[in-house]
Design a protein that fits this description.
Elements: E1 3-5, H1 7-24, E2 28-32, E3 40-42, H2 44-60, E4 68-75, E5 79-86, H3 93-96, H4 116-126, E6 130-136, E7 140-148
Parallel strand pairs: 2-4
Antiparallel strand pairs: 1-3, 4-5, 5-7, 6-7
Helix pairs in contact: 1-2, 2-4
């Protein structure tokens, strides 16, 4: 069931889950949160699933120790944007065409099923928003989530 949700709390909860792994791999995390973001109307567990998937993908895209993940939020006139940017290996242009397709993965069979981004795409659509990606090989990736603002919630 959808309920008012503070996106910063959701992000912070998922970062806490990833913290040990990020520290072990020497991944630097930066947060740039916009002030006074309105709450979104969403299913908390589903939004957590999307954020966690993107954080795990960002971490796994870094081939060696080190790297950086930058999370930023921004209020727009009609919604909230969340950006998760990494300094990982990036995604080549051929893979970019299929990145949200079910069962598409660039990972080995024991590392992923190719469902994470497909499910995330469906969750974002079900919430009236979207997910998009910008990436280049060896330059990392930026995933942008857009959640519409519902003026009826405080």
């Amino acid at each position: 069931e959808r309920a008012p949700l503070d996106i910063h709390e959701v992000i912070d909860d998922m970062l806490l889950l990833c913290n040990k792994k990020h520290q072990a791999r020497k991944i630097v995390l930066e947060r740039h949160y916009a002030g006074d973001l309105p709450k979104i109307r969403a299913v908390s567990d589903q939004v957590k699933q999307v954020i966690l998937n993107l954080l795990q993908n960002a971490e796994e895209s870094m081939p060696n120790e080190g790297g950086k993940i930058v999370i930023s939020t921004e209020k727009q006139e009609d919604g909230i944007k969340v950006r998760i940017k990494d300094t990982g290996c990036g995604i080549d242009q051929d893979a970019m065409k299929s990145v949200f397709d079910p069962f598409f993965t660039t990972k080995s069979a024991d590392k992923g099923t190719g469902l994470g981004l497909s499910i995330s795409y469906g969750i974002m659509q079900a919430h009236g928003g979207f997910i998009k990606v910008e990436s280049r090989p060896d330059e990392g990736s930026t995933f942008t989530l857009f959640f519409p603002i519902n003026p009826d919630i405080a």
